[in-house]
Amino acid sequence: MARGKKSSPAQDVQSTKNYHCMDIGAVQQELNVNIENGLSTSEAEKRLAEYGTNEMRGGGRPSALKILFRQLANIMTLILTAAVVVAFVTKDWIEAAVVIAIIILNTAIGFFQEFKAEKTMDSLRKMSSPTSRVLRNGHQVVVPTIDLVPGDVLYLETGDVVGADCRLYEVFNFETDEALLTGEALPIPKEVASFSDPELPLGDRINLSFASTMVTKGRAKAVVYATGMSSEVGKIAKKLMENDKPKKTPLQRGLDKMAWVLLGVAIVSVLIVFGVNKFKVTNEVLLYAIGLAIATIPEGLVAIVTLTMALGVHTLAKKRALVRQLVALESLGSVTNICSDKTGTLTQSKMVM
């Protein structure tokens, strides 16, 4: 997601009010706006500085260095790297070249797969309406959606992507597709009447329209009350970003455990060789001990695992599935049943007979 700014206190309280329970008069008073004239240019600029830009934050563009670090930061790769160093010290050029080739192959496959997925995710984040029609200084103008602020009077019509969460006050045969938020595959007819229940479910707040939803029919006017990370879509993004660092999968934990065990076996093997020779370490003894230690480590295992996962990702890609990280295949492979009440929503956001 674009610019990595922190949310301001003003952003954090944008949507704490129950705007679906307020009539339009109360909304105008709360947001300090006149729906006949909209905001002035100076007031809009002031609020933009106060609330921040209307965009998702936190992800940023994919970092090649970060992805590369993820590929190299595992126990097996570190052990292989140590084996390369030892091979160079003992001038075992063939062993060193083979292990280096394996490290490069494994890193390259994982790097390009994840970098491609991150680029795709970055493109998906940017899929939003670039401009919106608002009322400023009593005139309807087109502004970048990123510059929408609470209090803006927003004009919506068929085909528009709603730029921010807003309270509707004038509708004409107006419907929106809210499948991405509520899972409801059919368009939702909207009204302007206020409700009395502050705990009304999101899908039943039909006097509101939400950011990133699509206008499927009619036209409407609304007052923006939440933008950016304070919108309903922003709250979802924030929840995802607040998750703890992903834990390692059983396969990763198993490989790490095996790497430590093999490292221990390699060290014990070296000590045994030295012990048999009464710790009189000559070049021949050292070369034999290091060769035995390196032979203990299955250099090709990392490449085989990565290649297998890459082939699996390639197969999924042919079926139009986006896999962000190779290790996700293990979780996908563990799924036996998927329970859903609306298969159409999972496919085309349409109920199909």
Task: Give a structural overview.
It is a single chain. The protein is an alpha+beta fold and 353 residues long. It is built from 13 helices and 7 strands. Strands 1, 2, 3, 4, 5, 6 and 7 form a 7-stranded antiparallel beta sheet that branches. Helix 5 (75-89) packs antiparallel against helix 6 and helix 9 runs antiparallel to helix 10. Mean pLDDT is 78; it is low at 1-9.
Number of strands: 7
Shape: elongated
Strand content: 5-15%
Order of helices and strands: HHHHHHEEEEHEEEHHHHHH
**Fraction of residues in H or I helices:** 40-55%
**Count of DSSP-assigned helices:** 13
SS-based class: alpha+beta
Q: Span from first to last CA? A: 37 Å
| Main sheet characteristics | 7 strands, antiparallel
Rg calculated over all Cα atoms:
29 Å
Q: Would you tell me the overall average pLDDT?
A: 78
Taking pLDDT < 50 over at least 5 consecutive residues as the criterion, the unreliable ranges are: 1-9
Distinctive features:
single chain, 353 residues, alpha+beta, 7-stranded antiparallel beta sheet, 13 helices, 13% strand, disordered N terminus
Secondary structure: elements and pairs:
Blueprint: H1 9-12, H2 24-31, H3 41-51, H4 64-72, H5 75-89, H6 93-125, E1 131-136, E2 139-144, E3 153-157, E4 165-177, H7 179-182, E5 188-189, E6 208-209, E7 214-226, H8 232-241, H9 250-276, H10 283-296, H11 299-318, H12 328-334, H13 343-347
Antiparallel strand pairs: 1-2, 1-3, 3-7, 4-5, 4-6, 4-7
Helix pairs in contact: 4-6, 5-6, 6-11, 9-10
Compact description:
With 353 residues, the chain is an alpha+beta fold.
